[in-house]
Amino acid sequence: MLPVREEKKAVVEELTQKLKEARAVFVTDYKGIPVAQLTELRRRLRAAESSFRVSKNTLTRIAAHEAGVADLVPMLEGQVALTFSFGDPASAAKVLNEFTREFKMLEIKGGLLQGRPLTSDQVKALAELPPYEVMIARVVGGIKAPLYGLVGVLSGPIRNLVYVLKAIEEKKAAS
Question: InterPro entries, from UniProt (predicted)?
Fold first, then answer.
C-alpha cells in the first residue's frame, strides 16, 4: 500500500505546483468525451501555453487548499478536469470555448484568474476578448488620435500665417 500513497502525494505536489504557477485555472466537465477529442483538446491547449489535466477531485481539493486557492473547491463536482494557463489566459479560454461550441460535450464550470474566482459566464466573456496585441493597439490608437487632432488645431494659425505671407509676397512681386 505504501507505493500508492507515495503516488498520490506526488500527484498532489504536482497539482499544487501547477496551481501556484498558473495565471489562470479553468474547471471543465469532460464527461462523455472520447479519447481522440481529448487528445485534440490537449494539442490545441499546448499551442496556447496551457495544459489539460484530469485528476481525482479529492487530490485536487487537497492541492487547492495547499496552494491557497480554496475558491476552486466548490467547482470540483463530478468528472472534472483542470486547464492550467501559463500564458495568456484569454487564449486558453478561447480554446475551451471553441471546443465547447464544436463538440458540445465539454462544459466550462468556472475557474480562477490570478486567484480570483470566475463563473462559467465570466470564462466565456474572457474568451470573447480580443487578443492582447489588439487591445494594446486600441489603447495606443486611443491615445494617438487626440494628439493628431491637437497638432492639427495648433498648426492651423501657423498655416494661415504662411498663406497670408505668401499672398503678400505674390502681391509685391506682381506690382
Answer: Ribosomal_uL10, Ribosomal_uL10-like_sf, Ribosomal_uL10_bac, Ribosomal_uL10_bac_type
